[in-house]
Amino acid sequence: MMDAMDRKIRVLIAKPGLDGHDRGAKVVARALRDAGMEVIYTGLRQTPEMIVSAALQEDVDAIGLSILSGAHMHYFKEVKRLLDEQGASDILLFGGGIIPDEDVPKLKEIGVAAVFGPGTLTQDIVEFLRREVPRRRARAGL
Amino acid sequence: MRKKHDWMRETYQESLKRMPERRIAHRTLSNIAPEPLYTPEDLEGFDYQKRLGYPGEYPYTRGVYGSMYRSKLWTMRMFAGFGTAEQTNERFKKLLAAGQTGLSVAFDLPTLMGYDSDHPLSKGEVGKCGVAVSSLADMEVLFEGINLEEVTTSMTINSPANAIWAMYLALAKKKGYDWKKLGGTIQNDILKEFIAQKEFIYPPEPSVKLVIDTFEWGPKNVPRWNFISVSGYHIREAGATAVQELAFTLADGFAYVEAAMERGLAIDYFAPRISFFFDVHNDFFEEIAKFRAARRIWATEMKERYGAQNPRSWMLRTHAQTAGVSLTAQQPLNNVVRVAVQALAAVLGGTNSLHTDAYDEALALPTEESAKIALRTQQILAYESGVTHTIDPLAGSYYVEWLTDKVEEEARNYIAAIRKMGEGTPYPTLYGVIRGIENGYFQREIADASYRFQQEVESGERIIVGVNAYQDEEAPEVPILLIDPEVERVQAERLARVRRERDEARVREALEGLRKAAVSGQNTMPHFVEAALAYATLGEMMDVLRKVYGVYEEPVMV
Lengths: 142, 558
Fold this sequence. Notes:
heterodimer, A: alpha/beta, Rossmann fold, 5 helices, globular, B: alpha/beta, TIM Barrel, about 10% strand
C-alpha cells in the first residue's frame, strides 16, 4: 500500500466571482502540474458554493483562489465559512492576485494560509504546498 | 561596400572571444531573435514608397495624419473609475483640470457583466475595479457638470456596450446636446472578450450581431462616434506576445468588417469609424515595429482585399495603454520608469491617444497622486523630450525597418492560419475567429506564450528588476486607494428610487420592443435608447437578451 504521505498533492485552482483575468491562475495551474501535482482548474465565474463543492468532490488538499478585481475579502471569507460549515477546515486555503499588503494580515486572520502577490515565482508556491500539505495531512490523520 | 558577414567573422567573433555574450535571452518578447547588427544589406531592395510612403498617405506606415504631433499631440486619455458615480465624477473633473484632454470610463465588474448593483452576483464587486452604472440615473451623476459636446468620452464596455452607449446618448438627449456633435468611443469589441478578457454574456454569433447593430446605426445617428475600439490590449495582458496581439487584433478587425459586409453594409459607410487599442509593453523597438506594421497591414488589407475606396477606411487610428502586466508590486516606484519607456515607444510608434498606467497598479486602483504622475509622464514626453518635432523619426533605421517587416510577416502567418480555420465559408476571417474561439485555439496560444514567459523569468533568462534580480529586503509603504464599502448601499438605494419613480408602463413597453427586435433580428439600438430614456436598468435590458440569446460558457483549459 502506498504511504498516505506519498499520495500526490491535489490542488483546486479557482476563479471566484465575475473577474475574467485568468493568466495567473492558468500559469500557476500549469506550474503545479509540471511539479507533479494533480491540479483541477475550475474555469471562470465560480460562486463560493461551487468552489467548495468541487473541492469536496475532488478530495483536494488545497484550494488556490485567484482574484484581481478587488473583491478578495468577500470571496475568501465566504469560501472559508463554507469550508468550516462542511467540516472541511483542514483543506489548505491560499490565493493570489492584486491584493494590497494591508489586507494580507486580515486574510491570514480568517485562516488563509498564504497570499502570493504579483511577481511570485511559481517555485515558491510549489515549495509552500510541498511543505504545508503533509503537515495538514498529518494533523488531519490522513 | 564591405559585407556584414565579413564584419561578423573578423570583428564581432573576435570580440566575442575576448568577451562572450551575456547569458540572457537575446530574443524579443515575441521570441524573435534579432542579429547583433543591421546594415543596408538587410534592407536590400527596400521600396520606400510601397513599404512606408509619406505620413497621412497610404499605406500609413509613418502615421495616419499628415502633420502628426506637429499639429496635434496624441490625446492624453486616462482611464478612471471607481466607487460611486459621484466619486468618479469628482476624479474626472480633477483630471480635466490637470490638463487631460479626453475622458475614459472604467466600469465595475457587475456593469461589465450586465448585472445591476443589487444583483446577488454583484455582492462584493460593486465599485471595486471601476464605477457602477446600473441606469441612466447613474450616468446623469457620472457626467454632472461636464459638457458632452466639449469632451470626448471613451467607455470600456463590451457585452453591454449597446445599453451603456444608449444611456450616454439618452443623457445627451435629455440635456439638449446634439448627437451629431458628440465624440467618443465605446470599446464594443466582443471577440477579444472571448479570446482574452472573458467578459462575455451571450454566445459569439449573437454577440457579434449586437456589435454590427452599432456599425449600422452609428454612422447615421452619431457620426463622430467610434462605435468600436478593436482591442489588442487585453489579449496582450492575458499573456500573448506582441506578434500574437497584433495578429489576433487585426483578425478581429477583419472579422467585424466581414460581419458588417454580411449584413449588407457598404465598407466605406462604416470602416472610417473603426478604431483600435493596443498595449505597449517593455520591448521598446518591437513595440514601435508593432504600431507601424499594424497601420500597414490594415491599410493594405482594407484596400486590396476588401476593396475600400475611402482613404479614411484604410487608416488605423489607435489608442495605446502601457502594459499593466509589466508593472511590479516589488519596488513600485520603478514602475514610473517602465511606464515612461513604454509611453515613449507608443509615441515613437505614432499612437493617436495614450493612457499611462500609475505606478501602484500592481497593488490597487491608482490614487489621485499616482494617476497624476502618470499623466505628467506624458506631458514631459510631449513638451520636454523633443520627440514630437519630426514625424516617425525612427523610419529608415536598419533595425526598425527589418523588425517592422518581421513582425508584419509573423502576424500575417497567424492571420492566414485563422482564415484557414474559416475556409469554406463566405467570410473566412469572421468564421475562422469564431471557430478559433469555440475550439480554444486563441486561449491555448496565449496560455502557452504566457507560460513560456514565466519559465524564462523563473530560470533567470529574463531579468525583471526588483523581482528576480536586485530584490530589496524591505517593502516600502505605498499609499493605496481604498474603496468605500458604502458604495453597495448607495447604489442599491439609487436603484430602488429609480424603480419607484419611473413610468413602469413605458419601461415594459421599451423592453418588449427590445425583445421583439432581438427575436426578429432587427437593429436593437433604437430600442436600447428608448429603454435607457425610460430608466430601464442595465440588468433588465441584458436579461431580455439573455432569454433570447442564451448565455455562453467557454471550454475550460489550462
